[in-house]
Amino acid sequence: MLELKPLEPVKRVTHTESGAWFVIEKLSPEAYQALRKQSLKPDGVDSILFAKKVCAKIIRDWGNVAEPCTEETKVRFGAAFAFNIVPWLVDEAMSIDDMIRAEELEGKGS
Q1: Taking the CB of residue 50, how many other CB atoms lie within 10 A of it?
Q2: 3-state percent helix, strand, coil for the chain, nearest multiple of 5
């Protein structure tokens, strides 16, 4: 029997400074903490390693980026933009539930 899988929460966001757009999936607080734990080194979190891991996890697609979105390029993107675009992407991915709740409330109000 053919069944549909439930949709995973995703969001398309545009980074205004660069013009790049991303389709990202939700990043739960638990997943965020797990990725940080996987990125630990003796003196704290390795920010570049964390950025590589988080990009591999949350980015589904992108546009206005020089290379096509693949597993390899997502990791390279994380390393290259660990301190400017990736923190913004993390914030966006962690706020997907808020966006869904706002849309549901807006829908109930119409």
Answers
A1: 21
A2: 50, 15, 30
Query: Which value, in Å, is the radius of gyration of the alpha carbons in the chain?
Result: 15
For residues 36, 93, 70, 6, the Cα torsion angle rounded to the nearest 10 degrees is 110
Question: Both tokens of residue 4?
Answer: 């549909």
Tell me how far apart the alpha carbons of residues 20 and 66 are, in angstroms, rounded to a whole number: 10
What 3-state DSSP class applies to 41? strand
What secondary structure letter does DSSP report for 64? S
| 14: β partners | 21
Length of the chain: 110
Q: Kindly report, residue by residue over 58-104, the tens digit of the pLDDT.
A: 999 999 999 999 999 999 999 999 999 999 999 999 998 766 565 56
